[in-house]
Every structure is written in structure tokens, then in C-alpha cells.
Design brief:
6 helices, five-stranded mixed barrel, Rossmann fold, globular, alpha/beta, 227 residues
Length: 227
Amino acid sequence: MNPPMPFPHHPGKHREEPLFTASDFHKYEAKRTGASPPRVPPSVVLVFGSRWREYLNRRYGRRRDPRSGIYRLSKRVGIAHISGPGAPFATIVVEELTALGVKQFLIVGLAGSLRASLRVGSLVVCDKALRDEGTSHHYVKRCAFARPSPRLVAKLVDTLKRNRVSFAEGPGWTTDAPYRETIAEIRRYRKSGILTVEMEAAAVFTVARLLGGRAAALFVISDHLDE
């Protein structure tokens, strides 16, 4: 029997330099277009899905920077709409915006609930995310959870409390395969205290931290994983 292959397959990958970075991409674009890289706010909210795009275009369409794709709310805060779901799309955006100067990322997204008490519309602050996706494993060595910025989570929790917004706080499960969320997994993770399932948090937490930034996540429950 062959021994199990490590993931990623290349040994010591995390110590190696990438061939092409997000900074290289921006330099290439500047050389190709003759324009300097766009300016970005230090904090960006990450949102997903067509309804968000429709809302942002209707409400903030005139504030959208066509080069960075950011809708500017103020000098310090913007919103970035991510066109596709999942960790790969999200981390590409985080890499490219970090290379432009963004320091903080807040995911505002949808998640499935593993708890009967968390029904559709409930809010959940993610305090750690199970790394059951592939992207984050190309950045740092294997460990069970990716963790958000404690400082950013504290600010988020304080803001929700000051505005008297009800929310839960706890761990989430990040997976690439929504059609392979098995009953056995749901039972196991529910028993271990995991509250939500989604597709981006573990990777965004990992990449933002590795690049010297901060990230956190606030989820709205969109469905309930009831076996």
C-alpha cells in the first residue's frame, strides 16, 4: 500500500517563494497601461453574490473605482464585491488589495447553520474557522483552525453590542464542497461546537494574517443544515 501523499504535494512549499506575486501583477498592469496603481482605503468589507452587486451599483455606483473595483464609502472604508464564491476567489482579492495597501478585511457573508437555535437571519461572529478547504494549505502548514484578528473581532463585537444587535459568536467550518457536506460531518462538527458552514473564512483569515493584515467575519444565516 502506498503511503498517503502530503498536501500540498511539494515538500516544504510554505518556505518557497512564489513565481509571481500580486505586487508583480500591479507592476505589470502599471507598465502595460502607463497608469499608477489605484489608491485604496485601509479597510475593506468583502461581500459575495449578485444581490450585493445590484445593491451596491444602485446605492454606491458612482463611488466605484473601476480599477480596484472598490466602492468607496469614506476615505478609510470601502466595499469589494467578489464575483465568485469560495476561497480561491476571495484570496486573490485579498492578495491584490493587500498589495495596494489594504490592511483590514471584514467578510460580511452568508452561512449555513449547524445549530437549531440559529435560524435564518441570525448573525454570527466567527471566532475561528475549520480549514476544510484547499487554498489556505498552500500558504501555511496544516493545523485545524484559522483564526481571525482578535483586535478586529473585538471591535466588531463591541459595535454590535453598542448598537444592541443580537448575535452569536463561535467557530465555523470552511469547505470548498457544498454538495459534499455529509451527515456524518454535520453531526461531528455540531457536537464539537461549530456553529456555521461557509466557503471563505479560513482562507481569508490565513492569507490576511500571513501578509501582515487583519481579518474578521460576520455571517448572516441563510439556511439550516437539518438532516
